[in-house]
């Protein structure tokens, strides 16, 4: 009977160890960073350029779809940002990562509050048959997007390297 209990105890310890590893993995901000990088790269660097090379899609249609997609991406990024901030705080990595996360907050807010609405207005002008005046909005958005992706990769790998 004690050998049966011993086997049960070993299995129980194994599952507790698995649960502990899962908990540690979920409390590591790296997974949020890498999923977010996948979203940003997928939309900004793959889907958007591909949309404008499709022969059957006109420029106004591509711009209209882009406006909807980037608004949705910004909402998903806000969710990822909140999740990342919560995990950084709960995992006791605040001191090491908070300044970097603050930069992400500024980038996501700048894109969502300023750049995406400005680019949407430019799209409205084009859809209305006009041509908007020159602007640095696309260049600024792209620069912030690349900065955000680099920052997320840095945070993700730094989080993996830290032992908690």
What does this structure look like?
The chain has one domain (29-161). It is built from five helices and no strands. It has helices at residues 2-26, 30-53, 59-90, 94-127, 137-161. 85% of the residues lie in helices and 0% in strands. It starts with a helix and ends with a helix. The chain is mainly α and 164 residues long.
What's the helix and strand layout?
Elements (H helix, E strand, L loop, with lengths): L1 H25 L3 H24 L5 H32 L3 H34 L9 H25 L3
Helix pairs in contact: 2-3, 2-5, 3-4, 4-5
Distance between the termini: 39 Å
The major pleated sheet works out as: none
Given helix and strand content, the structural type is mainly alpha
Tell the overall outline. elongated
Order of helices and strands: HHHHH
Number of extended strands = 0
Rg calc: 22 Å
Low-pLDDT ranges: none
Strand content: under 5%
Helix content: over 70%
- Total helices: the number is 5
Provide the domain count: 1
Keywords:
about 160 residues, single chain, mainly alpha, about 85% helix
What can be said about this structure in brief?
With 164 residues, the protein is mostly helical.
